[in-house]
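// run 5 | inverse folding | seed 20
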């Protein structure tokens, strides 16, 4: 267990000046990286992640293993070569040695399964391949959905961090202005304390916004298979949110394309084949063994022949294996019903959530963020002129930040709901996002 290292409280709460310097430094670094490398679009990043993600190797290796298992299921057991050599001595009735020589034998045995057994094993192996391909496709779809959400989240985090830095700069400028002059009464003193309190409150927002940016960058680089500190400039992302899809069409598509439901149905089909194989294995295979032997002890004898061996099904193992396979098939039937119910519940929930977020997003006008920003700037100018009271000034600054956060959170939640629905149904819902 790693030791717990505590950090002094004075290091956890930096001054607003240091916070602004940090945000400014990040902005300069991002600006420099933007000049060094062009901005990468969302679609390019999604394609890169779905090709280069390190975890893809696990699912691709699983698919290769099932294909190798398919080749193995279609082959018979190797023939077995048996050889023996020895000496033979022949004596007459009196016990005198009549002859002595070498005796040897060679045989080759090959086991043949009951007709249809290899075909059943191939069919079961084909189901394994289908499950592996389904797992790979599901991982790629989930990866693309996560990449889209993450890239937009990075864009939203940048916007929130920029807004927090902008408002923080206004508060700091006002505080420095108030401290540079002697307060002329109780009102200027109280207004100074209000500004200082807002500065302290804003530190939390600025810190959280910057941490969100760094966390998104780290995860994005990990998905791309790059070092966590690799720099990247993401092109601005704009959501073109449409209307909610029809529930009946969504459910119909989910019944056809849902990964978990399809996997449960494939496993049911596979278990049916396992039952047929268990019944087939109740009929024994047989082994054919052609052989040749020679003995030379005075006279020379050579024997040719063919042997046939069949196991006797007297232990009852075949019946027990069939009963186990039947029980597993009944379990698979239940798993299909459970998967269908879970799929329908998740699809309905995701559809309602997407519809709610789309309706909420539709209430925002395209220039809502700009209007709140302009109002905050206007309040700052007029407060300096004495035309706006401190309460209105603070309310507008906070409203600007809250509006920016609410706008991007709502759109990101809509994107996440659309991604979940796309993963559940297999439908292409990428129309909810577009580059500006």
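// decoded
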């Amino acid at each position: 267990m790693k030791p717990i290292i505590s950090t002094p409280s004075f290091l956890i709460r930096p001054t607003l000046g240091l916070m602004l310097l940090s945000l400014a430094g990040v902005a300069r670094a991002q600006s420099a990286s933007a000049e060094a490398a062009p901005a990468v679009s969302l679609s390019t990043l999604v394609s890169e992640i779905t090709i280069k993600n390190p975890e893809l190797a696990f699912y691709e290796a699983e698919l290769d293993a099932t294909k190798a298992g398919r080749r193995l299921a279609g082959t018979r057991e190797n023939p077995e070569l048996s050889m023996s050599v020895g000496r033979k001595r022949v004596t007459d009735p009196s016990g005198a040695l009549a002859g002595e020589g070498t005796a040897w034998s060679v045989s080759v045995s090959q086991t043949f399964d009951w007709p249809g057994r290899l075909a059943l094993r191939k069919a079961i192996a084909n189901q394994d391949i289908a499950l592996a391909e389904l797992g790979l496709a599901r991982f790629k779809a989930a990866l693309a959905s996560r990449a889209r959400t993450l890239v937009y989240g990075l864009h939203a985090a940048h916007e929130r961090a920029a807004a927090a830095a902008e408002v923080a700069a206004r508060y700091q400028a006002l505080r420095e202005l108030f401290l540079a002059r002697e307060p002329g009464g109780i009102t200027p003193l109280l207004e100074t304390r209000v500004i200082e309190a807002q500065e302290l409150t804003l530190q939390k927002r600025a810190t959280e916004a910057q941490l969100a940016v760094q966390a998104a960058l780290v995860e994005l680089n990990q998905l791309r298979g790059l070092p966590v500190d690799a720099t990247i400039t993401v092109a601005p992302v704009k959501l073109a949110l449409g209307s909610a899809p029809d529930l009946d069409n969504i459910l119909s598509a989910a019944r056809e394309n849902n990964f978990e439901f399809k996997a449960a149905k494939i496993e049911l089909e596979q278990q049916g084949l396992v039952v047929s194989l268990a019944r087939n294995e109740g009929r024994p295979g047989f082994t054919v063994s052609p052989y040749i032997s020679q003995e030379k002890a005075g006279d020379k004898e050579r024997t040719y022949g063919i042997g046939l061996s069949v196991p006797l099904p007297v232990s009852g193992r075949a019946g027990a294996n069939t009963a186990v396979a039947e029980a597993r098939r009944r379990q698979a039937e239940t798993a299909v019903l459970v998967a269908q119910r879970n799929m329908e519940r998740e699809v309905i929930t995701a559809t309602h959530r997407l519809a709610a977020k789309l309706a909420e997003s539709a209430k925002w006008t395209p220039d809502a963020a700009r209007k709140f920003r302009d109002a905050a700037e206007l309040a700052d100018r007029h407060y300096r002129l004495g035309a706006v009271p401190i309460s209105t000034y603070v309310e507008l600054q906070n409203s600007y930040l809250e509006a920016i956060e609410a706008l991007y959170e709502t759109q990101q939640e809509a994107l996440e709901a659309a991604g979940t629905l796309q993963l559940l149904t297999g439908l292409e819902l990428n129309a909810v996002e577009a580059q500006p």
